[in-house]
Specification:
The chain is an alpha/beta fold. It contains 13 helices and eleven strands. The model has no long low-confidence stretch (mean pLDDT 93). Residues 7-239 form the NAD-dependent epimerase/dehydratase domain.
Length: 375
């Protein structure tokens, strides 16, 4: 039996990092795992099932964007180097100052990438986003035109490009669609919280733009499986990778097969909450194109008070990470539309949650209830 790989997860308490750690733990995939995060497990809203996989001796508190932390992060007691390094770190909040993304995302990626190259790590996986593609309703493949449309994506693309220049770095890039699943606190969470308020107010939930706007999704369960499979494939010699045709850096879209749109989400949410859902007419949508921040502010003003009231009525005094607060950046009239066929064809990857559905959304809400986050 070959020894199992050793694994370092940077940003290991983030949403994807914690589920990756859990996947490795549950399936006993690694000989050693180290979870690095600047946040302590006690402050990370960890559900009980992550305790063993993410905390205790496996956890190290450190800021990987700081040069002076790198030795402590990468050194192992047996003097060997890590086999796989997953960079799940970086700023995931929207609407921050550019400097924040530069420091916490770009510089973090480069610091960790340079150290991984120096130490001859077998595979370094950089998490990126499908928001780096030029928005188009036709699904983007990995080599299609790039034109990042969120600040996160601008700096993620810079990280991709700069990492690719580091000599000796065994780099693979994974670009994700909207990730959802139990305990999710972004994107799907916002929509669910908004729907809960509209349900309480007895009013219709209306989306901007059209029902055809692409908001492609992927379940966290499949994200962690894909990340692990890419690392294994890379370390085993990158079978069938044609650098002349596909480019020097193995890059994979991870997106389910459901081709999720706003219309699909509106129907599912209407069904889950028993509320009317629909779309604003062209007049309001055109107005929003010019005055997006004002429109978003109005909606947030309308929803945040009632949400606080719901929490209070439910006796929820310690608020969790959920909020109906909407980010203008995420509300742009831009398609997140990706083609994930390369991962399936090249690695034989199979999605176990091929599309978002009512049951999977209800599972997300159930997870919130277990954590006492949900009113």
């Amino acid at each position: 039996m070959a020894e199992k790989p050793s694994v370092l997860i940077v940003g290991g308490l983030g949403y994807i990092g914690r589920f990756l750690a859990l996947h490795i733990h549950k399936n006993n995939l690694a000989s050693e795992v180290r979870i690095v995060d600047k946040v302590l497990p006690q402050l990370a809203w960890l559900a009980p099932e992550f305790e063993e996989a993410c905390a205790g001796p496996k956890f190290m508190q450190a800021d990987a964007s700081r040069e002076q932390s790198l030795q402590r992060i990468f050194d192992r007691s047996n003097g060997k180097q890590w086999d796989y390094v997953f960079n799940c770190g970086g700023e995931t909040r929207y609407s921050q100052e550019e400097e924040v993304y530069k420091l916490r995302s770009l510089e973090l990626s480069l610091a960790v990438g340079r150290e991984a190259a120096k130490r001859g790590v077998k595979c370094f996986i950089e998490l990126s986003t499908g928001m780096v593609y030029k928005p188009d309703s036709a699904p983007s493949k990995e080599q299609d035109k790039l034109k990042p449309w969120s600040k996160i994506a601008v700096f993620k693309l810079q990280a991709e490009e700069e990492l690719a220049k580091i000599p000796g770095l065994n780099l693979a890039i994974v670009r994700l669609s909207h990730v959802y699943g139990p305990y999710a606190s972004q994107w799907v969470a916002t929509a669910l919280c908004m729907a809960r308020v509209y349900q309480a107010l007895g009013s219709e939930m209306k989306w901007l733009w059209t029902k055809n706007l692409c908001t492609n999704t992927v379940h966290i369960h499949d994200v962690t499986r894909a990340l692990w499979q890419v690392a294994e494939w890379y370390a085993a010699g990158k079978a069938k990778w044609d650098a002349a045709k596909m480019g020097p850096t193995p890059t994979f879209n991870v997106v389910d097969k459901g081709r999720t749109t706003q219309g699909i989400m509106a129907d599912l949410i209407g069904d889950v909450f028993g509320i009317k859902t629909g779309f604003q007419g062209t007049i309001i949508s055109n107005f929003a194109k010019i005055h997006l921040h004002d429109v978003v502010e109005d909606v947030n003003d309308e929803l945040l008070g009632p949400w606080a009231g719901l929490l209070e009525d439910a006796g929820i005094t310690k608020p969790g990470p959920l909020t109906p607060f909407m980010e203008a950046e995420l509300l742009k009239d831009t398609d997140l539309s990706m083609d994930g066929s390369r991962l399936e064809e090249l690695l034989g990857f199979k999605y176990e949650k091929p599309e978002i559905n009512k049951e999977l959304l209800q599972e997300v809400i159930e997870s919130y209830k277990r954590m006492k986050w949900w009113p």
